[in-house]
Amino acid sequence: MTSHPFYLDCDTGIDDALALAYLLASPQADVQGIGTVSGNVSAAVGARNTLDLLQLAGHAHIPVALGAHDPLAGSFGGGAPWVHGENGIGEVALSASAVGLAAETAAEMLVRLAHQHPGTLRVLAIGPLSNIAEALRLEPELPRLVEEITIMGGAALAPGNITPVAEANIANDPEAAALVLSADWDITLVPLDVTMANVLEESHRQELLASSGPVPRALGEMLGYYFRFYEGIYGRPCSAMHDPLAAALAVGAVKPALAPVVRAAVDTSSGPGRGQTVCDMRGLYAGYPEVKGARCRVVLSLEEEFAPHLVDALLDFFEDGEGTTAALASAGSAA
Ligand code: BDR
Ligand code: CA
């Protein structure tokens, strides 16, 4: 199985933590570096969470770079503690990693990795797009150096989750998102249309909690917090699976059933549409014919249910495989 070099850009975040663990567990992904950005929590708190999770998972060697604290316009709004907890990981206390931050910014790390792996680096962006926009400014050739970019963000036909039309990652830095979506590359967009339709149930959470591995157990505890927020939306304890689904699509482990390639732009006005991903979905009426010049593959549905695959992948790796040995040898346990 081919393993692709990956750069992960995240705002860790409960579902970011799941995405990170999933990537580590994926034989198709070789995570070369991680950058953080303010979103669910500040970039600094997200970096701390990422370092601690990497240590718990026995992957403390993966470098973590601090990224943008503020969006391109305005300033960081304080995150989403009502969704992810004050510490961003559902108030779960992880052992503090002794490893420090990389001596480069997240955008610099992305540019460096793109040059080290020309044509093969895959980028997975699961937070606001501030770092990716900055990397495009630093290296205008980035679109030609990167093999693929997958973004969790936006809403194509579905409503938003932070305003009636805007999804959080895009709404937290619309100017950056507009730059990234208009750059000269093909994008896979994983919007709320598909992430809200793929939920993790309480039975899945119980499977994680029952694991002998510290990583699945910690994730199961974090999900308890996340489920309480999503219970207000779905009416039962469960949650959407935004970021891990984007990770699974990026590695190619799950396949889209419907994913039209359309033109997409971001509303950067100051009106009620600010942060909306304006995806041209008019092809819906004609079975989505090919559109000349369109670059954004919008994932609308999957071939198979995602949650069982996610849970199996995490349990297989962190309970039976390399992840268990590494984690138990190096980590301590989640509180
Ligand atoms: C996205 O926003 C963040 O809260 C999540 O981590 C996810 O990346 C969902 O809108
Ligand atoms: Ca995220």
In short:
The chain is of the alpha/beta class. It has helices at about 15-25, 45-55, 80-85, 105-115, 130-140, 140-145, 170, 175-180, 190-195, 200-210, 215-235, 240-250, 305-320, 320-330, and strands at about 5-10, 30-35, 65, 120-125, 145-150, 185-190, 200, 240, 255-260, 260, 265, 275-280, 295-300, 300.
What does this 3D model show about the protein?
- By secondary structure, the protein is an alpha/beta fold.
- It has one domain (4-254, 305-334): Inosine-uridine Nucleoside N-ribohydrolase, Chain A (Alpha-Beta Complex).
- The chain is 40% helix and 17% strand.
- It has helices at 14-25, 43-56, 81-84, 106-116, 130-138, 142-145, 168-171, 174-182, 192-195, 202-209, 214-234, 242-251, 307-320, 322-330, and strands at residues 4-10, 29-36, 64-66, 121-125, 146-152, 187-190, 199-201, 238-240, 256-258, 261-262, 264-266, 277-279, 296-298, 301-302.
- The strands form 4 sheets. The protein has an 8-stranded mixed sheet, sandwiched between helices.
- α5 (130-138) packs across α8.
- It is globular, with a radius of gyration of 18 Å.
- It binds beta-D-ribofuranose and calcium ion.
- Residues 10-11, 13, 15-16, 39-40, 126-127, 243 line the site of calcium ion.
